[in-house]
Amino acid sequence: MQASVLVINCGSSSIKYALIPADDAPRLEGIAERLGSQEARLKAKDAQGEAHEGALAGADHAAALAAIFERLDGHTPVAVGHRIVHGGEHFTRASLLDDEVLAAVEQTSALAPLHNPANLAGIAAARELYPELPQVGVFDTAFHQSLPAHAYRYALPASLYRDHGIRRYGFHGTSHAFVSQRADALAGGNDHGWLTAHLGNGCSTCAVWQGQSRDTSMGLTPLEGLVMGTRSGDVDPGLHAHLHRQLGWSLDEIDAMLNQRSGLKGLSELTNDMRELEAAAERGHPGASLALEVFCYRIAKSLAALSCALPTLSGLIFTGGIGENSPRVRAKVIAALPHFGLDLEDAANQATLRGREGRIDTGLGPQLWVIPTDEEGQIAHETRQLLERQA
Ligand code: ADP
Questions:
Q1: Residue 46 annotated as catalytic
Q2: Ligand 1 centroid to 202 CA: how many Å?
Q3: pLDDT of 214-231, one tens digit each?
Q4: Other C-beta atoms lying within 10 Å of the C-beta of residue 167
Q5: Which atom of ligand 1 is nearest to the CA of 277?
């Protein structure tokens, strides 16, 4: 396993990791969960794909990371690539995490109070355990720093942007970058305009022109835009005042409702899991059918809006757990965009599942691609690129 990069994605109580080799050798990957509790566990997959599970009772981020290093079968990575959710306007690409850069990441924590502190905890633990390894930050927001001002500014008093950084940032940048670069490679050349739809538990769309993000559906926070598993996506900004004045809801209650009890789960009153929703809709569950309709319509509406950011449309790309696995969602989204001249090939759509990459159009209209995302691979790739620039 030559020149592998250890990719780390740190949440408040979990660490996902993957040791990514420079070649096609198998990856070692896993997750440490429920950190900080007696139930903490490490689930790991070895090079043969065998699953292992062990207790990590009471482990914090540092203890979990030490346990993860022990599971790397003696491979020492050349660097650690950290996923960082919010890079604000400071970071337009991957950056070496020295003291100065870490101070800038800390400053952006106000914009992502749930995510950046957890990312920083992982970075601190990795630096302490392995001071000799370069630590690199790869930001979810960085790919979208190419948005023009007319796409990233809200129509709010300008001082809110100037003094407090209130603007649209966009997220899932690593995924949109990966799938659009992959589509460039598959289609040939990089003179393309792609509309990408990352549909997982979190969902976002992006318009990519000649390899650069020109607009995206998420904004200041990952709540803006599409309907998601438990997140509402766009609502009337007057909703907060209405719920507060009419129902006496506090800001915290409104925030929790929009993030945790809305989206597919809120609409269906059933589940945020697309597989279960599709099965329930088949059985005639009206909430599940409605949730599916709203979900797909809003994706199509978002893609149509983002098409304004592209001089020409080469095609659409579906990715994420739902985008990669649900022919029904893909077909419904495409059916809601009749004026785009899209021509879905049904058999290819039905057959492109479970991590398969494939083109699902007939060749008559814009291209339609299913491209499994690889955020870990992209983080490792950007980490290597940075090391090469510095060599
Ligand atoms: P995350 O955003 O947490 O990384 P994923 O990208 O794994 O999430 O996507 C999770 C979503 O993908 C869930 O809604 C899940 O139901 C959906 N999904 C996974 N497999 C299928 C499938 N075979 N058919 C439909 N939806 C699926």
A1: no
A2: 10
A3: 999 999 999 999 999 999
A4: 21
A5: 16
